[in-house]
Structures are given as C-alpha cells and as structure tokens.
Amino acid sequence: MPAIGVQPNGRDKPWSVWFPRAIMPGRLRPGNVPHRHLQMSGPALFAGPTGASGEFHYFNSTILSRFGGDSYRGPQLIRQQVIAIARAWFRRRGAPWPPGHFHVALGFATTFIGGTGRCCFHILDQIYWGGRQDRFGIVQNPSAEIYIADRGTVVQVDTGPVMNLGGYGFSQPFPGRTHRDRNGIVLGIWCFDYASAVRTMIVADIGGHSSWVNDPGQMGFVPGIGPKGGPSYRVSLKDTHAVYTETYRGVRYRMTLVPAFPSLPGSIWELEKVERRATT
Question: Strand 21-22 and strand 132-133: pairing?
Fold first, then answer.
C-alpha cells in the first residue's frame, strides 16, 4: 500500500484508487464489465486530489476469514492501546492527526464498513471526530473516524465525508446544457464528481452490493423514471462507454454511460448523456 498522496504514473487524476480484487472466472460480460460481485482481498485506498491533507478512505479486509467473519478471539484492547495504534497509523501514512476533540468507543460491535453496517468483527473499537452516536450506537456524521479490530489491526479510516451520510454519487444534470422535454425528462449532458463516485463505489463494492453500480445494465434507464418506464435495451457495451434505450410515454430515449474510472475493473458507471431519439 503506497503512502497516501503518492500517485504513480502521473498526477493528472482527481482521485487515486488502489483496490486489489480478484475477478471470479466466468463472471464477465462483454467489454470486461463485471456481472457479479468482485471479491476484495487486502487493503484498499481511495485518496482525493490533495492526498493525506484532504479526503481519503482506507479499508483492510485481510483479517477476515474466507466466510466473511473475524476468526480472532483474543483479549480486548484498552483505550490507551487504541489511541496509540491510531496515532501510529496516521504517522506511518503521512497523514495529519485530525483536528479537534475525539471520542473513543471500545467494544463497538457494528461498523459501517463500506457504508453497510456489516458486522464482521468480534470486537471493534472506534475513534471518531465530531458526529454523534444514534440509538443503535452508530456514529452519524463524523468528520473523521478510524476503526481498530480486536487484534490491533486498523480496518477502516475515513477523513472527509463519511459513508453513512446517505445518498449516492450518481450523475446530475449539467447546468446550462440540459432541458426538460414534455415528459419531464432531463435531456442533454449529465456530469458527476469523482469524490461522490468514489463514495458510492465504496458503499457498494466493499459492502458487498457491487452488482448494481458496476453493471451498466442496472443503470441504463431513463433518469427519474427507472425500470417502471419499461425494459431498457442495450445498444452497445464497450470498455469506455455503454448505450441503452428505453421507451417512456411513447418516446424512445437513448442513455450513454461511461465508467468513472475506466482503468479500474468494476468501476461505477455514470450517466453522461440523455437524448430523445424518436416518437413511437
């Protein structure tokens, strides 16, 4: 795992992603698009354009067993150990210790690993900045957080907006380059921001729900209408783009999607353009 902020092969990308995964045989569609969940193994890092000084998200699944659960049954860490492990992690990664007052929650049984509330660890400790615990013990809206498993392994670190804030980073109409037709459908150019795309991919992929974001077929519907408008039809599917059509209220719409991270197998797909093709 490289230091946070190091971007090999150039620094022209708005986000750097290191995401070691194994693609299961026979699970690919044409265009190298994953059909089902990609098994993640090892640490993953999503670093924003300012690296360690800005937003980044780190996940480490290496201590989980092949069945998804933590097999360790050792003693629980004490508060001083948790803080020392957290400080050492930030120092090794070249990241500053988050500012402000922090809270330490020991024996935290549930975590938003990947934003899903996946309960994989026997004992889990958490340090968080800002936010508050809800009635289930989940910390809502922290500005930063770090989770440490029972054996002293850091399994999740978030700085900047955290996954459990809700909402997903799907495309939005590009101001000044879109308009609504008589059906209320927004036509024209759509855009997305990389930070939101990354957060959505973390929520889906690491949480085990990747199929509905890294398969363009799950996204190729008229925006705002979805499958209720009728079935969508794939026109083309390539590594760099996908085209689908759907008919709604007698009008055929054409949707063009692109992978947010073209070089990353299993990238989230985002809507790029919506066109009105013909009236039936």
Answer: unpaired
Q: Phi and psi (nearest 5°) for 29? A: -100, 175
3-state SS, 149-207, equals ECCCCEEEEEECCCHHHCCCCCCEEEEEEEEECCCCCEEEEEECCHHHHHHHHHHHHHC
Number of compact structural domains in the chain? 2
146 with 156: CB under 8 angstroms?
yes
Residue with tokens 């937003």: 55
- Whether 36 maps to a domain, the answer reads no
Decide: 149 and 157 in contact? Cβ < 8 Å: no
Which residues span the domain enclosing 122? 56-160
Domain assignment present for 144: yes
What DSSP designation does 6 have? -
219 contacts 233 by C-beta, under 8 angstroms: no
- Domain's final residue, options 139, 160, 181: 160
Q: What is the mean pLDDT of each run of 10 residues along the chain (280 residues)?
A: 44 63 42 42 77 83 62 82 96 91 81 56 85 76 87 86 53 90 93 80 68 75 73 88 91 91 79 83
Instruction: Tell me whether residue 167 is in a domain.
Output: no
